[in-house]
Amino acid sequence: MAADNVSSVTEFILAGLTDEPELQMPLFFLFLGFYMVTVVGNLGLITLIGLNSHLHIPMYFFLFNLSFIDFSFSTAIIPKMLMSFVSKKNIISYAGCMTQLFFFCFFVFSESYILSAMAYDRYVAICKPLLYMVTVSSQVCLLLLLGVYGMGVLGAVAHTGNILFLTFRSDNLVNHYMCDILPLLELSCNSSYINVLIVFIVVTIGIGVPIVAIFISYGFIISSIFHISSTEGRSKAFSTCSSHIIAVSLFFGSGAFMYLKPPSILPLDQGKVSSLFYTIVVPMFNPLIYSLRNKDVKVALRKTVGRITFS
After folding, report:
1. CA nearest 179: which of 11, 26, 32?
2. Which of 233, 242, 224, 253 is closest to 295 using CA atoms?
3. Residue 111 · residue 73 · CB < 8 Å
4. Which of 119, 139, 174, 265 is the residue whose CA sits 20 to 30 A from 236?
5. pLDDT tens digits for 43-86?
6. What domain of life does the UniProt record list for this protein's source (predicted)?
7. Sign of the Cα pseudo-torsion (186, 189, 192, 195, in order)
8. Is residue 13 within a helix (H) or strand (E), and if so which, with residue range?
9. Whole-angstrom Cα distance, residue 311 to residue 301?
C-alpha cells in the first residue's frame, strides 16, 4: 500500500446505519424510543429486585446483573449511534473508539457468561431442588459473578489488544454505527490472517463455552422434567426455563450469525442489521421477557406500585 494512504489515525468517522437522508429522522426517533424502553425496563427491573426482599434469591441475583449488563451495553452503543442520524459526520476519537470497542466486548462476553450462570442456576433448581440453597449459596453466586466479569475483561482485552496493534488507512470511515471488530479489521492496512484467527478463537470461546455449558445444563433439565410424573409439575418446570431459553436464543443466535460466518457470506452492510439484534433488540426485550412471564416479578411490581400510590 502506498505510504500516503497510511497515517497515524487520531479519529474515525462512523458511517451509521444508513446514508438515506429521508430515513435519518424516523430512525433517530425509533432508536431513541428503543433506548428509552431499554433504560426504563432494565433500571425498573434492577429497582424491583433491590426493593423486594422476596426476590433476594440466586435466580434474581443473576437477573439483576443481566439487567445491569443490558443497560450498560445499550448505553455504550446507542447514544453515539443516535448522533449519526442528526449530524453530517459522526466523528469519534481514536481513544473513544477503542474505549467503545473495549466496553462493547466486555458486555458481550459478560452477557454470554451470565446467561450460562443462569442456566446452571435453573439446573440446580430443577434437578437438585432440596440442595438448591446450599449448592447455589451466596458465596457460589459471588464466585460465578466474578467469573462472568473476569471473562468479560479477558475477552475485551484480547479483542481490543488485537485492534490496537493495527495501522489504519487515512480514509478513516468505519462502515458501521459503532466501533466493532470486523469493520475496524476491514479498515486496517496491515491486518492479517492471524488477526482474523484471533477474533475467531476469542469469539468461539466467548460464545462456544457458554453455549456448551447451557446445552449441558438443559440436557440434565430436560431429563429431569421427563421424570416428573405430574403434568402440572412438568408445566411449572418448563415455564421456569422458558424466559431464559428465549433470551439465550435471541442473544446467541444473532451473535453467532454475525461473527461465526465468513465476511464473504455475510457482507458488513448486512452485518450491521444483524448486529442490531444483540446490541439493541436483546437488551430491550430481556426485561420484558423476564417480567411478563414471571409471577414473582409481577407481584413485586404490584407491591411497589401500591407502596408508591399509598405514599
Report:
1. 11
2. 242
3. yes
4. 139
5. 999 999 998 888 899 999 999 999 999 999 999 999 999 998 98
6. Eukaryota
7. negative
8. strand 11-14
9. 15
